[in-house]
Design brief:
The protein is mainly beta and 141 residues long. The protein contains one helix and eight strands.
Length: 141
């Protein structure tokens, strides 16, 4: 049986390096999922030694993708349908680890609406609502 500790994010995501924006799946159930990312200098979304707002959005989207891959035991292609109430309080710096938690607010057909919070330690760096639309087709991880 697959456990959180035994699964590689590469088994859960359609993205491939250098576009992978999560390092580890920390927890996952039907409603709450948390991932970890160490912000590295070589990350494609680094601007002036910080992860950009676009990088934060992609990190949230990939946390959603990791949830879907873990719960469904398959990788599905999804697209960001909408981002709302996006607030950035501080950009994460190179060398910091961020925890991203999504809370599923609603799921209907192939659309999932989540509330996301990105933290470094106890500090909230960003938060947002995001709507993800899944394609019906599974892809090879």
């Amino acid at each position: 049986m697959k456990t959180i500790e035994s699964v590689s994010v590469m088994e859960l995501l359609p993205q491939r390096p250098p576009f992978v924006m999560i390092d580890r799946l920390l927890s996952c159930d039907e409603t709450i999922t948390t991932t970890l990312l160490k912000v590295r200098e070589e990350n494609v979304f680094i601007v002036e030694n910080h992860l950009s707002a676009e990088g934060l959005v992609e990190n949230i989207a990939q946390t959603c993708a990791a949830r879907i891959g873990y719960l469904n035991d398959s990788v599905k292609l999804g697209v960001i349908g909408a981002v709302s109430n996006f607030e950035v309080f501080r950009m994460p710096r190179v060398g910091e680890q961020i925890l991203t938690t999504i809370d599923v607010l609603e799921e209907m057909f192939n659309i999932t609406l989540v509330k996301a919070v990105v933290k470094c330690g106890d500090e909230i760096l960003a938060q947002s609502n995001m709507k993800i639309a899944l394609m019906d087709k599974e892809i090879q991880a």
